[in-house]
Design brief:
- The chain has 610 residues and is an alpha+beta fold.
- Helices cover 53% and strands 10% of the residues.
- The protein has 28 helices and 17 strands.
- A 6-stranded mixed β-sheet has the order 12-14-13-15-16-17, with helices on both faces.
- Strand 4 (57-60) and strand 5 form a beta hairpin.
- Helix 18 (408-422) packs parallel to helix 27 (542-567).
- The longest helix is centred in the N-terminal third of the chain and has 30 residues, at 103-132.
- The radius of gyration is 27 Å and the shape is globular.
- It starts with 5 loop residues before the first helix and ends in a 17-residue tail after the last helix.
- The structure holds zinc ion.
- Zinc ion (ZN) binds at residues 39, 41-42, 49, 60, 62-63, 65.
Length: 610
Amino acid sequence: MPRIAQETVEQVAAASDIVAVIGSYFPLKRAGTEFRAICPFHQEKTPSFFVNPSKQSYYCHGCGAGGAVFQFLMQYENVDFPEAVRRLASRGGITIIEDALSPEEETKQSLRKRLLRLHFEAAAWLQSNLLRTKAAAHARSYLQDRGINIETAKRWQIGYAPNTWDSLVRWGTAAGFVKEELIESGLVKLREEGNPRSRLYDRFRDRLMFPINNDFGEVVAFSGRVLDPKAKGGKYVNSPETPLFSKGNLLFGLHQSKRFIAHARQAIVLEGQLDLITTFEAGIQNVVAPQGTALTARHAALLRRFADEVILFFDADAAGQRAAERALEVLFSAGLQVRIGEMPAGEDPDSLIRKLGSDAFRARVESAEDFFDFQVNQESSAAESKTTAGKVAFARKMSQFISVVPDLVLRDTLISRLASRLKIPRETMQQMVHSSASQIPGRALEAQVAAEPQMAMPPHKLAVICKAALIVPNLLREIRRQPWKSILQHVDGAELISKIFASALEPGETASIAAFFASLPKSEAAMLSLLLADKVLNEQMGQLYWIQLASDELQRRKRQLESVLRLTGDDLAAQQQANEELKEVLDLESWFTDISRLPSPGREQSGSIQ
Ligand SMILES: [Zn+2]
């Protein structure tokens, strides 16, 4: 992946007025020298979200969100830093300068671009088939029966693939796409597999077509639902794996629902596309559906970016139960909490909403039980649970799930709670969890690695903060007045940075820097001088990254403690301890969001804090 040039980042920052950017997402009201709005990051009735034009920053008194224009995009659109820069650049009409691509990368990129174009145009063509052709009358009436009107069909870009062998081949060729592109897209197949000279035919015939979008809303694949119940082939046919599409990486609906999921910190996982569309349109919008496959570790990691908790609504049949059990392991491994939603026999969310309205489904969401409670309740009504052997087998099964939970505190809480509910000694339960964990090291580890990246601060940013602390005159003084020790105590790789903050070093003064260097072990001194010499690290970003680090770290700790609190049940001592820690985090948070303390590069060094 080529890196965005530093000049571009600076140019983009200069060209992106924070009031204009945030104002393009939702209306801002002037309030004195600032602007205010209802906070998009937490639920509230009176606005506590402020945008400050002179500081080019935003902050929320309610939930502690805050930062500069890049953070806003990262938080609101749930994208990483480079992507936030790209989006702001295209908004400001700034050309992104990226390091040069190798010829292979160049080819790959241009194929990707062509395939995106092809999918974009194909979606429009398929939709016009659905809306305008006679041949799609049965598809339209099917949608009508399912309660999906024209507006909804348009919003989800639902289409129709004609019942012929080569409609898409002919359309694509006429639209200027070459044979290789059509084959690579997976929308057509070769009549003789492996023989590029053989003729092409359409993969999707007489099917209702649902575009599958990536995170940015680009169409990258299709899912076709059968219309003729007697037709051969599966109920759903998906695009194959292509350079654009890997079904284990994408969740249907996420590009529309991620904002709602992030807002609720909760994702409702449904089985099918139509369930998802009906539910979303009925106003329950924090929903996703895996692409007709089991949830993968990648899916779980993706959900973890937006949510702390997942509610599973799978079919009550055996296949649905197996899918749910498989899902649990990856969800727990990613550090998500899981609740199980139950449906009345014979209903799915789509049919329930159409019969009884959205409140009926909403009630099901609210009454969804925590996975472990759900299991224990089910088990205690089963006959086997009366025998010791049955009880042990059940405890063993549960301990497997607990063993993949990455958070140690949470794992401990679960062990205590389950032991007391099953009336077995805590040590025994702990032993079981321990031995389950050692049986599946590869599996658990693999899932954890996939789930990890969003937790750690990129070392690049820590490096920038280090460099900035040594060079930018006011930054270090500013940070030293802040509760930085409490922030950094759980941050990986923050040893050197802590030493700098704790030192007597005077930034910008050569003699003082040299003295500090002399106090360091050789390896750290070498690392630091490398950082200082590195022209790519822009120290101007140091302050921004520091605020971001503090706020990310506090959010992370808050979420973790809230999970613990939710699961401590009636363990009063554990609850009290978690509450005390939470109070500490909240105090820190209000410290950082107090506007009078927001560091500003322009402000003179007065030495006083109100
Ligand atoms: Zn807020």
